[in-house]
Amino acid sequence: MGHPEEVDVIVCGGGPAGCVVAGRLAYADPNLKVMLIEGGANNRDDPWVYRPGIYVRNMQQDGINDKATFYKDTMESSYLRGRQSIVPCANILGGGSSINFQMYTRASASDWDDFKTEGWTAKDLLPLMKRLENYQKPTNNDSHGYDGPIAISNGGTITALAHDFLRASDAMGIPFSDDIQDLNTSHASEIWAKYINRHTGRRSDAATAYVHSVMDVQNNLYLRTNARVNRVIFEGNKAVGVTYVPARNRAHGGQLKETMVKARKYVVLSSGTLGTPQILERSGVGDSKLLQKLDIKVVSDVPGVGEQYQDHYTTLSLYRVSNESATLDDFLRGDKEVQKELFAEWETSPEKARLSSNAIDAGFKIRPTEEELKEMGPEFNELWDKYFKDKPDKPVMFGSIVSGAYADHTLLPPGKYMTMFQYLEYPASRGHIHISSPSPYKAPTFDSGFMNHKADFAPLRWSYKKTREVARRMDAFRGELTSHHPHFYPGSPAACKDIDIKTAKQIYPDGLSVGIHMGTWHKPGDQYDASKVHEDIKYTEDDDKAIDDWVADHVETTWHSLGTCAMKPHEEGGVVDGRLNVFGTQNLKCVDLSICPDNLGTNTYSSALLVGEKGADLLIEELGLKVKLPHAPVPHAPVPKGVPGTQQVR
Ligand SMILES: Cc1cc2nc3c(=O)[nH]c(=O)nc-3n(C[C@H](O)[C@H](O)[C@H](O)COP(=O)(O)OP(=O)(O)OC[C@H]3O[C@@H](n4cnc5c(N)ncnc54)[C@H](O)[C@@H]3O)c2cc1C
C-alpha cells in the first residue's frame, strides 16, 4: 500500500511515547489518518526483540544492524578523569521498549507534583497509569491497572539469588514489601517486576502493544521505518508537515534526499530526549544565536531546547557466587549447549522459561539514615535539605541484583557471578545536546554532564558500600571480582577479596595453578561459613577517594535520558507548555521524556508510556474525539500455531 502525501497527524519517532500517541489516535477514529515515522527498523516479529532474556545483546555495536544510536560525549570530561561517556539510545520501532532491560518501576507521586503544571499531578495521572497496564502480579493496593496493553509480571522464573538478596537486604535494614511501585514507598525491597507477559513469555514493547495491534485491525495508521525525520515544515509559525531522509546516507553519497509529508492537523515530535531537540533545532526552533550561526532560519527563539539533559547514573559491581547458583553466565558467554537448552525451553514453555526473564528479579529503593547523612558531606546534605527532606516518597538510590555478570564475559574469569546495579535517581548534574550542523547525518555536540555536580558522588559512594554489605551477607557470596571494584590500598581493611580457594578449585578441579600468587594477583576470600556474623566494613578517607575515582572511571548511563525540551515557562528555559505545545509555534507538540522539567525516580519506560498517554489525551481532546477503551487486542510475536492471536488479559 502506498503512503499518502498528506495525513491528519504525523508522529515523528516510534518510541514508547510516540507509539502510544499514534496508536491511541488512530484507534480513536478510523477516519483520522495518522503517520508514524521511525528512524530505526520495524521491530515486528524480531526474535532479538521479543525474547526477553537476550536483551544484553542489544548493547553490541556492530555497525550493520544496530538497534541503538551511540551518543558519545564530544569532549573529554574532567569530572570523569578525562573519559568521554557513551549514552546508547534506541534506534528501532518501539524505541527503548524494544531493547531495554524490561525492569518495571514507577516514579514517586511527588515527582509528578513537582512538575507544578496543571493536569500533571500524580492524582491527575493515576487513571492513565492504570489505563496502560495489564498488571499480572498479585497486589494489595489500588494503583495498578488490569485491562491495558502493557503486560507486567514476574516473568517465567525468579532465581534463588533474588531471594537470597532480599533476605540479606532485610538484614541491612531494608524491609521486604509486596509492592514498592505504589508511588509512595521509598525505602524497601521487592521482587522486581518486568515488562514481560507471563502467559506468552514475550517482551511487552510499546509498538506491539499500541501500533501493531491497531494496524492489524484498521488501515488508517501508516508506518514508515528506517526514515529519519529531518525537519518540521512551517507556514509562518504553523507546523504543516515534515521532511524525512533515509536513515542511512550511504546510497546517495551523503546527499540529502528529502521526502515531504504534510500534516493537516498536528505534527508531534516523539524522537526521544536526544532526538527531539535536534529536530527542533534543524527546524528553526531553538536558541536563535546557535541557529543563526548554522544559517538556519529562526521560527521561534527558544533557548531551552537541548538544555538540562538528565539521566540516572549507575555503577555496577561484580561478585562471585557459589558454583551451584543459577545464573545466566554460561548462556551469556555463548556456551552452545546451554544456549540450545535455554532457547528450546523458551520455545516449548515460554510461560515458565528461564529466558522469559531478564534475570533481574529483586531490587530496592533506599534513603539514608540520619547517621549515614552525616557521612555524606556538605554538598549532598545541601541537596538533601532542598530536594529530599520534605519529600518522604523520594528514594535517593535504587539497587538491584542481576543473576549473572552484566559485563563483557571475555573480560571475566570463569565461574558464576551476580551484579549489583546501584543507581542514582535524582542527580544534580546536568548536560546538553545541540546540533552541530543543519544536516541530519552529522553527529551533534553532546555533553552528558555526568558527575559535573559534586553532590552526586556521595550517594553513589554510599550505595556502593550498601550493596557490598548486602552481597557479603548473601549465602551464595563467594568473593569480589577485584577488577570490577574500586582499587583500595592493598593493606586497607576495605580492600576487596576475590574468590575463595575452595570455590576456585571446584571450577578447575584438575588445575595446577589454582591459588598460586596469593596476596599479589589473588587475594582470596574467606571460605564460606554459614554461621559468620558480618560486621560492616570501615572505610577511611583514602578508601572513599578510591571509591570516588572508581565512580568517575566507571559511572555510566542507565539509559534514562530526559529533560531537553522541558515543560515549564519560556522565561525559565522551558520549551513546551502544559498542553505540550512548543512555544512560539502552532500545531506542534513534543510528546516524550524530553518534556520532563525535573527528574523522575524510576526506570523510565513507565513514565514514557504515561507521557504518551497524557499527550494522546490532550490531542484527542483537541481533535474532538474520545479515547477508545480497551485498546486494540495485542498480537503475539510471532503468532504461534494453535495459539489465539492475542495475548490474554486478566
Ligand atoms: C538499553 C536501555 C535499557 C533500558 N532499560 C530500562 C528498563 O529496564 N526499564 C525501564 O523502565 N526503562 C528502561 N530504559 C528506558 C526506557 O526504555 C526509555 O526511557 C524510553 O524508551 C523513552 O521513551 P521515549 O518515547 O521518550 O524515547 P525513545 O525510547 O528514545 O524513542 C525515541 C524513538 O525515536 C526514534 N528517533 C530518534 N530520532 C529520530 C528521527 N530524527 N526521526 C525518526 N525517528 C527518530 C528512535 O529511533 C526511537 O525509536 C532503557 C533504555 C535503554 C536504551
UniProtKB/TrEMBL annotation:
Which parts of the sequence belong to the Glucose-methanol-choline oxidoreductase N-terminal domain?
Answer: 90-113, 272-286
Q: Which GO terms describe its molecular function?
A: flavin adenine dinucleotide binding; oxidoreductase activity, acting on CH-OH group of donors
Instruction: Tell me if Flavoprotein is a UniProt keyword of this record.
Output: yes
Query: Looking at the Swiss-Prot or TrEMBL record, what is one Pfam family this protein matches?
Result: GMC_oxred_C
Q: Which UniProt keywords apply?
A: FAD, Flavoprotein
Required co-factor(s) are:
FAD
Residues where FAD binds: 229, 559-560
| Database matches in PANTHER family | GLUCOSE-METHANOL-CHOLINE GMC OXIDOREDUCTASE, GLUCOSE-METHANOL-CHOLINE OXIDOREDUCTASE N-TERMINAL DOMAIN-CONTAINING PROTEIN
State the family named in the UniProt similarity comment for this chain: Belongs to the GMC oxidoreductase family.
> What is the name of this protein?
GMC oxidoreductase-domain-containing protein
The organism is Lentinula aff. detonsa
